[in-house]
């Protein structure tokens, strides 16, 4: 009777809750099951189905939640203590022996170790020290679990120690700890380190394993592996296999596809996948929007890039400096009339410790092409101060052209000296431009000194060098020097100007 009373009371509770939330629908109960009248969509609802409607309430177990919170707090205290000694291996082991052993033995299912490794996710080297200690010290009393091995494998992959990840996988396999999560961890390690073929080989091994089968997570990892190597055909074949198996895709499935299309510069496929998400049950989340922001920036679709940016602006401005740099590059390549203003607005979001020489070079070219001499020189000054240097002729010519259009010969001369000293790319165009600008100002002696500078940096005179001299001397009536230059041109096989022959 006591048992029946409890069932009856339980049913009353359910009945009361349902009547409150659905006052227009009567509910009938019996001892074995619950039925709802009238039927919804022609289907009869069982007790299990009914409770699942309120799974967020009825599956909630306060005791489980409290115990998990207690575990997290205990592990957090241990983590904080470990972080104070993160550079001393002996002290780390001492802390674990004094405060970790009892905790880990209490949670013999490995949950405490897994939670500690999770909380140490931002400190992979320390996490690996903890895992190594756990592997050596506690296995004889509390055998390691699959979840612990999976965490260790993932951590080893993140540290680019593929050999250790493989060793841990074999060790777990020898202990007959075979689960899909173990394969997934090693496949992730291979993918993170660009070993797509090994990832695919392991996937084939998993398909032959009788104890477990690939999950949607497995296929997501495979898609990501192929996407990183721009193997679009393999990536799409994996997607077809997911559909053939009737596995429901997840947000990570689409994330891997979009990332792969961006890597391969398949802009149409990227857009189709994004639109498919928007039209389907799995809507784009923040990670997808961040990917699309990158994709639109690389593809030069500034309108769509700016639209996505407005959706994730707060997150990007605070945490995603690489994406900010990508947007700056997109503006620099564009014909947007307001690109300089937009670039400088984004630049203010980048901390000083996030300086990148390549971005500095892009900014120099932007200001040079826009004839913003002051901003260009400020960027050049920053590059010199940070001991960055330019190695391409194209960028140097871009700078030279800006000085030439501003007729800023003295500033150009100062830049050339600093470029020589700083190890920047040296080319004849630097000196030829100086010669032309000096000639335009009738500073022939300065123009001639440029020849000594060219000789000092081992740049032989070319036909263009002599032509600049010839035109300058002819323009200002320097007949004797004109004849000397004509002779030098003849001597070096550059030919004699026709007007020289006529005269």
From TrEMBL:
Keywords, ordered alphabetically: Repeat
Coiled-coil segments: none
Positions of PPR repeats: 215-249
Pfam families referenced in this protein's UniProt entry, alphabetically: PPR, PPR_3
Protein family membership: Belongs to the PPR family. P subfamily.
NCBIfam families: PPR (TIGR00756)
Protein known as: Pentatricopeptide repeat-containing protein
Organism of derivation: Rehmannia glutinosa (Chinese foxglove)
